[in-house]
Write a structure and sequence with these properties.
The complex is a heterodimer of chains A (about 270) and B (about 130). Chain A has about 270 residues and is of the alpha+beta class. Chain A has 11 helices and 10 strands. Chain B folds into 2 domains: about 30 residues; about 80 residues, no CATH class. Chain B is about 50% helix and about 5% strand. Classes of the chains: A alpha+beta (about 270), B mainly alpha (about 130). The interface between A and B is medium-sized, with 28 and 28 residues.
């Protein structure tokens, strides 16, 4: 090969065949050596906990029966129960108040439905509204710190540790389901419920589908509190769940469907 | 050059004596008043992990708890020995260390640390509670 024209091209390398093979062999051995140690966990704690939320992925959803709810027009059991277990302060000013589940007039809840005939004069009655835990949540898209995100089971979560209080999510949410803490909420709490933290001044909060209760096998507080069983909570991924059956059998609507947020709070009208 | 050896050595000794004054003064007089006396507030033999680890790394443990509960929904802590704890500052930590002022605050004040845990997490015991800890 010496003196060959091809060798001229490889002059810069200055390697003979033997050396080249040695180096290649060592490089391959080196690469495989590093993968031998890959079983050692990196950053021990943080990575160990990266497991699925639940062994089988669920899809939490809620169905609210407006006719059943309307049987007790002045009832606020669900709101009260929610307020207690989540340490929600009582602030009367509409712009400052904190609300997770609250009442609005039918026409405000379903503005695109007002031309449809609805039985039993439901249109005149208030509707319970809460965070819809959208399949396609606009609040999550705008959050600059990932303080709000959608879990695998569909719950749109808030991480108050990360929230910087920019309120983009409040602007993005078409349902007004988010509230900002203008004050230290503890100043406006009558009782403190020990099993759930309060929030702090300067963070945005909203309904969490009682994630902390569901994780322990409890139903959401509003569902448990309703004497008319007007609120049903369950797993849409399970065809035998009550929510799935209701959605198959009854005519249900969601709020502002034209926005494409795909709410998971349904209403039987 | 070598004539200054004595002076240099004396200088170094003088420097060390002055620089380390807080240590030898404390040791000689047995009077280290400013170190806080921590009251664990519990007779339990062990904490979640061993005491040495908890002393130096409790903030890492809590940070990990915070992250894994909120972000990943992993609520149970398995210790090195295989015991299980609910990852809860109010429930688990304060369940034993009932007096936050004598346990957490004394040391945090001494070291000038201002953790913001208590802005949201609750230290009170005189509150409604119905849910069982798993």
């Amino acid at each position: 090969m010496k003196g060959d024209g091809k060798n001229e091209d490889c002059k810069g390398l200055n390697l003979d065949r033997r050396k080249f093979l040695k180096i290649t062999g060592l490089s391959v051995a080196g690469l495989s050596f590093s993968s031998v140690f890959s079983f050692i966990p990196k950053g021990s704690f943080a990575n160990q906990s990266k497991q699925k939320t639940s062994p089988s992925i669920r899809k939490w959803a809620m169905v609210i029966n407006l006719a059943a709810c309307a049987k007790r027009p002045n009832c606020s059991d669900c709101i009260d129960a929610c307020n207690i277990v989540h340490n929600i302060p009582t602030l009367k000013t509409p712009k400052k108040e904190i609300k997770w589940i609250w009442k609005v007039p039918y026409v405000s809840a379903f503005p695109e439905n007002i031309h449809l005939p609805v039985k039993n004069g439901l249109k005149g009655l208030p509707v319970m509204v809460l965070c819809n835990h959208c399949e396609n949540p606009p609040c999550v898209k705008v959050c600059p710190t990932k303080a709000t995100w959608k879990r695998e089971d569909g719950i749109v979560m808030m991480d108050y540790h990360r929230c910087i209080g920019c309120r983009y999510c409040m602007a993005a949410c078409p349902y007004g389901a988010r509230s900002f803490n203008w004050f230290d909420p503890r100043l406006f709490l009558k009782t403190v419920y020990q099993d759930f933290p309060t929030r702090t001044k300067g963070v945005v909060e909203k309904c969490n589908f009682c994630e902390e209760r569901v994780a322990r096998g409890f139903l959401p507080a509003c569902v448990e509190a309703c004497k008319e069983n007007a609120i049903v909570f369950g797993d849409l991924a399970n065809a035998d769940a009550e929510v799935s059956k209701i959605l198959q059998e009854r005519h249900c609507i969601v709020r502002k469907p034209h926005l494409g947020t795909e709410p998971k709070v349904f209403y039987i009208i | 050059m070598m004539f200054d050896r004595l002076r240099i050595i004396l200088g170094i000794i003088a420097f060390l004596v002055i620089a380390l004054a807080p240590f030898w003064y404390g040791n000689l007089t047995g009077n280290i008043r400013s170190v806080p006396i921590i009251k664990p507030g519990t007779d339990a033999e062990r904490c979640v992990e061993n005491t040495l680890y908890m002393k130096s790394k409790h903030m890492d443990l809590l940070d990990n708890w915070k992250e894994s509960v909120v972000r990943d929904g992993m609520r149970i802590h398995k210790t090195v020995e295989g015991r299980f704890y609910n990852k809860s500052l109010t429930g688990t930590c304060l369940g034993c260390h009932t007096n936050k002022a004598q346990f957490c605050d004394r040391c945090h004040d001494y070291t000038g640390v201002k953790p913001r845990c208590w802005d949201c997490h609750i230290e009170l015991k005189d509150v409604l509670s119905s849910m069982n800890q798993p």
